[in-house]
Amino acid sequence: MELLRFCTVGSVDDGKSTLIGRLLFDSKAIFEDTWDAIERTSQARGEEYVNLALITDGLRAEREQGITIDVAYRYFATPRRKFIIADTPGHVQYTRNMVTGASTADLALILVDVRQGVVEQSRRHAFLSSLLGIPHLVVCVNKMDMAGYDQAAYEAVRADFQPFLERLDFKQVTFIPISALKGDNVVDRSTEMPWYDGPALLQHLEEVEVPPPGDLEAPRFPVQYVIRPMREDFHDYRGYAGTVAGGVFHPGDVVTVLPTGHRTHIEAIDTFDGPVTAACAPMSVTIRLADDVDISRGNMIVAGVAGTRGPSIGNEFEAWVCWMSERGRLLPGGRYALKHTTHNVRAVVQSVDARLEINTLAEDLSPDGLSLNEIGRVRFKTTEPLYFDAYQRNRTTGSFILIDEATNDTLAAGMILGAIPA
Questions:
Q1: Is 42 in the same domain as 188?
Q2: Is the peptide bond before 259 cis (omega within 30 degrees of 0)?
Q3: Which member of 70, 114, 273, 353 has the greatest number of CB atoms within 10 A?
Q4: Full-model pTM
C-alpha cells in the first residue's frame, strides 16, 4: 500500500492533538490498554470527557500545561493506505520542533480555531510548510460545534486565509470544517453541516496524490560508508552504502562520482535481503561499481554530469534559513559547521540579504541578522565544494543544517535556493 506522511500544524490550542486522537479512535487504531490509560488519566484530571489529546501528548510537561512541546509520531492504516502522522507543537517557542516534524511530510494539516480565526502562527506555519516543499495543504476549520456549526463563521475564516495561501507554493489547498472533539467530518461526514458537500478528512487523506520521493529524473546517492569486509571469502568486495536521495539506479547504469568526476557503471546493488534490480528513494542500499574508485563518506554518486542531470557543484550558494537558536543570532561573518547529506564542511555567512515578515510575506532587505524563529535569505561560502540541488527539486540534496562547533547544538535549518554565479 502507498504511504502518506502528514503533519498537523497551527497555533496553540487549535486542537491538533485532539484531532489526531479522534482520527485514531474513530478509525479503530487505538489499542484497548491505551484507551483505558487515557480514560483513567482524564478522570484523574477531573475532566468530564476522555481527553483524546493525551494519545499524542505523552510528556509530563505537555499534560500539565495542556500544550504540545515535542513532535509525536503515530502510525495507522486503512484498507486503502498507510499513514505516518507527525503531531507538531503550535507555540512560537517550539517552531524549530515544528520544522523538524514537517520536514519529511507530503501533506500539512493546519488547524484554525473558528472562534479565533487566522492568527500569526497560522500564517507562520503555512509559510513554513510551503517553504519545506510540502505540496498539499488541508485547512481544518476546527471547533465548529462551539460556533453552532455556522456556515458563515466557516466562510469568514476561509475568506480571510485563502488570499494569503494563494501567494504560497502549494499544489493543492483544501478547506474542511470539522469538530475534532465531536468527530464531525473527521472520519465520517457530519450530519450537523449539510451545507458542506466535500469529503471527510480521512477520505481526503486516502485519496490525495502521494508525490514521488525526490526527482525521478535525477538520481542521487550520497555515500555514507565504504564497506570492505575483512573476510577471506569477501576479499574482493567493495561497496558504497547509503540512502538513495533521488531518482532510480539500476545495475549497468553509467554514473559519475563526485567530486572526482570519474565515470564508471554500476555492477550490482545489494540490500539486506539480497541483490535488487533497481533502487529508488528512500531505499538504503549498497552500490558496487565496476571500477575501483577513490570514494569516501561525503562523496556522491550521480547519473549524468554537472550541468545536465547532475547537481550543482560549488562552495557559494543562497538559501532560506530558519534560525532556531536561543543563545545567539545569525550574523554576517558567522562561522559554523554545515552538514549537507553525508558531507560535513565549515561555512561562513557572507551576507543576510533579507528577513521575511510572516504576516505580509514582505522582505526586509536590510536586516542586521536573524533571531530565534526568524526566516531569511542568506548567502554562504563553504571551505569545500558541495554537490547540491535547489530544495524545490530535491528536498534531501537541497537541505542542510548549521551546527555550533563548540557545543554541537543544531542552530538552523536551511533550504537551498541555488548557486551564486561567479
A1: yes
A2: yes
A3: 114
A4: 0.83
pLDDT for the residue numbered 282: 87
DSSP string, 43-98: HHTT-SS--GGGGT--SHHHHHHTS--S-EEEEEE-SS-EEEEEE---SGGGHHHH
Point out the residues of the chain with pLDDT beneath 50: 59-69, 306-307
Handedness of CA 261, 262, 265, 270 (dihedral sign): negative
| Cell numbers standing for residue 116 | 479565533
Q: Which residues pair with 4 in a beta bridge?
A: 83
Cell of 176: 474542511
Nearest to 218 by CA among 416, 393, 341, 398: 393
Instruction: Locate 347 and state its grid cell.
Output: 561555512
CA-to-CA dists, residue 7 to 31, 89, 195, 247, angstroms: 22, 10, 27, 25
CATH number of the domain enclosing 7: 3.40.50.300
> What pLDDT shows up at residue 59?
41
As beta bridge partners, residue 173 has: 137
Same domain, 111 and 165: yes
| CA–CA gap between residue 284 and residue 300 (Å, rounded) | 14
In which domain, by residue range, is 377 found? Answer: 312-419
Taking each helix axis as running N to C, give the angle between helix 95-102 and helix 120-131, from 0 to 180 degrees, rounded to the nearest 10. Answer: 40
Round to the nearest angstrom and report the end-to-end CA distance of the chain.
Answer: 47
| Region of residue 115 (left: phi > 0; alpha: psi -120 to 50; beta: else) | alpha
- Into how many domains does the chain fold? 3
Cα torsion 375, 378, 380, 385 to 10°: value is 80
184 and 268 in contact (C-beta within 8 Å)? Answer: no
CA dist 193 and 171 (Å) reads: 27
User: Residue 343 CA to chain centroid, in angstroms?
Assistant: 20
Q: What is the DSSP letter of 145?
A: G
Amino acid identity of residue 187, one-letter, is V
Q: How far is CA 82 from CA 77, 79, 135, 234, 400, in A?
A: 4, 8, 18, 39, 28
pLDDT at 37: 65
The rounded distance, in Å, linking the Cα atoms of 200 and 177 is 9
The CATH number covering residue 241 comes to 2.40.30.10
Reading the block at residue 416, the C-alpha cell is 537551498
Instruction: Give, for 172, the enclosing helix (H) or strand (E).
Output: strand 172-177
Looking at the structure, do residues 97 and 188 belong to the same domain, yes or no? yes
